[in-house]
Amino acid sequence: MSEAVGETPQEPPVDVRAILAVIKTVAWNNSFVVPYKAVADALEEQADDYDDFSSLEAEFFAAAFGRRFDHIYGIHLQNMLADDDLIVVSPILLDEWRIKMLKDIGELFDYKFYGLEDDETPETLADVQKRITLTNVIINTLIRKWTHEATGHNNATPAMAVYMIAKRYGLDVKIVKTDPSVMIYRIDPRTNERETFQVSRVVYSIEDEVYIEKIGDEARGEWSWGFTSASEAQNNAQEVGET
Fold first, then answer.
1. How far is it, in rounded angstroms, from Cα 172 to Cα 112?
2. Closest by alpha carbon to 217, among 182, 166, 185, 241?
3. What's the domain range around 150?
4. How many domains does the chain have?
5. Which end of the chain is more exposed for a tag (fewer CB within 10 A), N or C?
6. Angle of helix 50-65 versus helix 36-46 axis, rounded to 10
7. Looking at the DSSP assignment, which residues form a beta bridge with residue 175?
């Protein structure tokens, strides 16, 4: 899959700080699905004061659950508090059928459907946590599957979605490091022998806060996206036009 997003940057439906809060939360969790409360907490850290936070959160909630974003989706879960709702990011645009499927899957871990609301013992709470973990695995797998079906890319990652969101809404995206020749290794599962590949590597910063790397073969158009650390952002940061 080529690097190009294929979308023209557009004005975000809310303050750009809300977009950055989503990006930072996804990076921290390295997951396509994160709790709404985690995004709200990240947004609170960027607000000037409580009144500013209240306004930002209200705008973000309305946009995320009102389907005003591209690549960012609020998933409201029946019988749950707003803090228990989910935020899902995707490298591709999701239709209402897929969003409904994610909602149904998300509600699988609602303990109220299992008669546990009056039995919050360590055992039942541990069971709920297992259901949450399983639900997150299923949602992450579905996003990867749908992205593969739509684009042919067989290794979709949350970092890929973050890059597309940042480009879509005009955040400051810079190339901070390029390695034209990097050696990577993998074990061939068929022969159990180590294979060596020569690829290129590009490290991007988003608003100088989140760093992602793209490793792959330019000629073949095959890329793998992942999060990396700020230590990769050396002093050779360069402004770029089209990244």
1. 43
2. 182
3. 16-159
4. 2
5. C
6. 140
7. 204, 238
HSE value, Cβ hemisphere, 13 Å, CA-based, for 47: 19
Is the Cβ–Cβ distance between 181 and 200 less than 8 Å? Answer: yes
Regarding whether 179 and 106 lie in a shared domain, the answer is no
Q: Are residues 141 and 201 in the same domain?
A: no
- Do 117 and 207 lie in one domain? The reply is no
φ/ψ region of 145 (left if φ > 0, alpha if ψ in -120 to 50, else beta) reads alpha
Look up residue 137 and give its two tokens. Answer: 């695995």
pLDDT tens digits in sequence order for the chain, 243 residues long: 334 444 667 777 889 999 999 999 999 999 999 999 999 999 999 999 999 999 999 999 999 999 999 999 999 887 655 677 899 999 999 999 999 999 999 887 665 555 555 556 666 667 667 777 888 999 999 999 999 999 888 789 999 999 999 999 999 999 998 887 766 666 766 777 776 667 788 899 999 999 999 988 766 667 789 999 887 655 444 433 344
The pTM score is 0.82
Q: Are residues 115 and 198 in the same domain?
A: no
The widest CA-to-CA distance across the chain, in whole angstroms, is 61
Residue at 196 is within a domain: yes
Based on the fold, state whether residues 68 and 42 are members of the same structural domain.
yes
* Same domain assignment for residues 204 and 95: no
**In Å, what is the CA distance from 74 to each residue of 5, 51, 90?**
22, 23, 12
Q: Which two tokens stand for residue 95?
A: 């239709």
